[in-house]
Every structure is written in structure tokens, then in C-alpha cells.
Amino acid sequence: AQDAFVNRQSRTKNVMKLVYGIFESKQNQSSESNDNEVNDEESEIGGLFRVVSHEQQKQKMNKDSMNLTESSLFEPWNINIRNWLDPENKMLVENCFVTGKWRDSEDASELLKLDDA
Amino acid sequence: MSGTVIGNNTLLYKGSSCMRQRLILSVLSGKPIKIIDIRSYHDVPGLQDFEINLIRLLDKVTNGTVIELNETGTELYFQPGLLHGGAFEHDCSLQRGIGYYLEVLVMLGPFCKVPLNVILRGVTSNSIDPSVDHVMTAFLPTVKKFIVDDDVSVKVLKRGMLPLGGGEIVFRCPVRRHLRPIQLLDGGMVKRIRGIAYALRVSPAIANRMVDSAKGVLLKFIPDVYINTDQRKGNQSGKSPGFGLHLVAETTVGVFYAAEQVSNVASEDEKSTPEDVGTAAANKLLQQIYLGGCVDSAAQSVAALFMALSQKDVSQLVVGPLSEYTITFLQHLREFFGVTFKLEHLIVDDDEDDVGRGSDKIQMTCVGIQYSNLNKRVT
To answer: Which one of B17, B130, B340 has the shortest CB-CB distance to A73?
Structure first.
């Protein structure tokens, strides 16, 4: 789940939307609610069933996240810890260390070459 | 999730999630909050011990706070008073770690009237909250970027593990009139790894076994790994047996990433071996390094708060992927202070250059609201 979360974040082009999306949808709601009244009759299918309104669905979603335990840790509890010795995973972080490859702009040997030129 | 404004500037929320964020921001902004439907449908409805304990702590830090709870504890009205601070002691609930409460004090500390000098008692490390060591090694460097001062400190007097706790720490924090804006765009590269292994009320050899297995992982990445063992005697080691390993990585530009793994509670779960704890801690640290950024992932929210409240100037900060906690914190910051951050992916010019540097980074930019600490006396 953690991987999915990180991936989702890197895939969403717009981080702003991820964080502040709620507020925009809230503003839209006021305009939407007017539309809903118009659409009310349409949402009754065959005169018997009602389409669960957007509003209700949203409330249900909120209910799930209402009483969560809060923790500022990125991954509280000891869920799925990646094995970083795995060559595939190891590759991801190798250059975060001073022992890894430096950026050209910081690499001493690269900078020395510049001096010679 | 998001709150609605009811009369008198009061914000209305539902449910107990994010209660700590809401209380902190309420105290800082002076806006009263009302929370309803706190675990209304749970078997044990209403506020739990650790939350009531948190409210008590806030009551100690402030002056003139009005707290109203209904009989079942499912509704809370909180009207913050003035942030006073000063010296006091507090017994934390054992349901959560001291870190849960300490984080609150870290966020409020610089804005108090009198410098904080607090003794907290309880559980020093568990698996849900950042441990005391985590706050010490990862949060304080972040705080020091905003207030240039060496006075801010955490000291572990006694360690305490679940279930009985018995730990004791001292937290000191100076007061500031303004916070300075920051510009942190490069996290640097990890140059050394340090750590503390502690074994409380169990064989001291366990600490060494943890060190060995953690080193087995970390030495494959960097040679500069040094892990201390913290042996404690008598009541300094708390009331319950347990052990754990705290690791911290320092980068070339002085950014710290911390991670910690503690043993399972002896009486409840499966017993954990020192080797497992050691490797798990090492892997957790590598995960933190993977996330990267200019602050530890757990300290993102502290940095965001201080950026928003700093002087009227642009603050920039590069962080790793935002944690769920930070996302809700940013939403709350907007509700309480009207501060919106500009968030964008950091684009690296050269693709080839970026291989193996961890996750994609996010650049946070905001203009501070020049929150000034009116409580602090001008001398």
C-alpha cells in the first residue's frame, strides 16, 4: 500500500490538486447543488430506485477517515519494510550516499577538468 | 474532512482523526474549535485517555483555555487561551509515546511567553509515534533552521518501554518573536550514519546483536557507520523489558534522516529477535534516505508550520513525497491561517544524473504570514 501511495504521488502531475483538491470541490459544490435540484427527477430510475447521490457517497468516504489514529511518521507500525539489499532496490538509493556518483556540478574530478579547460 | 466555519470564528470538525493538528493550530491561531461525532459508533465512544491527556497538556501550556466536553466525550469545544509555557512536569498517557506529546511542544515552543522547560514521563519509544530520539535527532535540526539557537534540546533521563513506561525526558525551547524564512533546496548526500542501541531490562548482549545485524546492512552502502550501545541501570531503564535501535543519517549539508525499530511488547505479540530488529531498523533508515528531501519525512509538518508562520518573505523547501499527515496538515494550515503552499515537482535538468537518488522530490514554496509572538516581552 505504501508503494502504491508513493507511486500515486509521483504520478499525479499536480501535487497542488492532491492537497488542496478538497477545497476546490467544496467551492464547486455550491454551484453543483443548484444543478442537483434540476437533476433530481432524472436520478430516479424507473420511479423506484434512486441513484446514490454524490453527496451521500462523499459522506460515506468521510466516515471511513473520521476517527483514524494520527501519527506523523511516514509509515507508522511495522508494515511491509522493503528489503533494501535487494539489488533492484539498492539501485534506487545508491547515489544518495557520498560513496555514490556525484552530480557533475559537484564532482571534484569534473570540476578539475573544467579548470584545465 | 474539512471543517466548516460556524459563528464566532469557530471551526467545526467531525471525528477524532487529526485532533492533535487541529488543537495545535487552534492554539496558535486563537480560533476556537468544536469537534463532534468523536467515535460515536465505536464500542468505546468518545475521547480516549491519550487525547484527554493531550488536552490537559495544552491546558498546562496555555493560560485561560476553555474546554467543554459532553458526558460521553463525543463532543469537544476548545477555546484556546494565551500561550504561556514555562517550566512544568507532565505524565503522558501510556497509550501513546512521549513523542506524540513532544511534537506538540516542539510546534508551540517558540511562540510561548516563557521558555519551555518541561519534564515529560511515559513511553519513550513505540512503533506508532516518533520516538524521543527521533525528535531529538531529526526534528530539532529542522527547528534550528528557523531559530538560530543551540538552546533547544531534548534530553533522555530515563528510557521506558511499553506496556508500563517509566521513561523521563526534559525538553527545553527558547522563545522567539519572529521566525526566519528558509531556503533549502538541496538535501545533500548521506555522509555518515550514527545510532543508539538500547536494551532495557534484558541481557546487554542483545544491544550488540542488534548493532551487528544493522551494520551488516548499512555497511553495504557506506563505510562510516558507528552505533553506540546505551546501557542503563536500575530505574533509568524504565519499568518494562524491551529493546530497540535508533539510527540517524547525516548528509553533507547537515540534514538528518532518522528511523527506529523497537521490539514487540513481550507479553502480547510474537517475540522479536535482536537480529530482526536490527535489520528492520536499517531498512527503515534506507527507506527514509530514499524519501529524502531537506527535512526528515516525519518533520515535514513542523517545517511547513514554521514556514507558514515565518516573516513576510518567501520560504522554499524541497521535501520527499508528502506523508498523509503532512497533506492533512497543509489542508488545516489553509483553514486556520489561510496559507496556501505552492507545491510542484522538482524537475532535474539532466535525466541521467538523477538515477539512484531516491524518490521524486517536491518543492514547497510559501510566503510567511509574519506571525509575531505577542506574548514575548520586549526587553
So the answer is: B130
Give yes or no: residues B160 and B231 share one domain.
no
| Per-residue pLDDT tens listing for chain A (117 residues) | 555 655 655 555 577 777 787 666 666 655 544 444 444 444 454 545 555 555 666 666 666 667 777 777 776 666 667 788 888 888 888 888 888 777 766 666 777 777 776
Rounded to whole angstroms, the Cα distance separating B328 from A70 reads 10
CB contacts of B323 in chain A (<8 Å) are 72-74
Q: Determine whether the interchain pair B222/A98 forms a contact, defined as Cβ–Cβ distance below 8 Å.
A: yes
Please determine, for the modelled complex, whether the ipTM score is greater than 0.95.
no
How many degrees, rounded to 5, is the angle at CA B171 between CA B168 and CA B177?
165
User: How many angstroms separate the CA of residue B377 from the nearest CA in chain A?
Assistant: 32
Structural domain including B334 reads 295-379
Of all residues in chain A, what percent are helix, strand and coil, respectively (each to 5)? Answer: 55, 5, 40
- Chain A partners within 8 Å of B15 (Cβ): 62, 65-67
B329 and B285 part of one domain: no
Q: Is the model's pTM score more than 0.90?
A: no
Are B239 and B218 members of one domain?
yes
Residue A39: CB partners within 8 Å, gap ≥ 6? none
Chain B positions in Cβ-Cβ contact with residue A73 (cut-off 8 Å): 128-130, 297-298, 323, 325
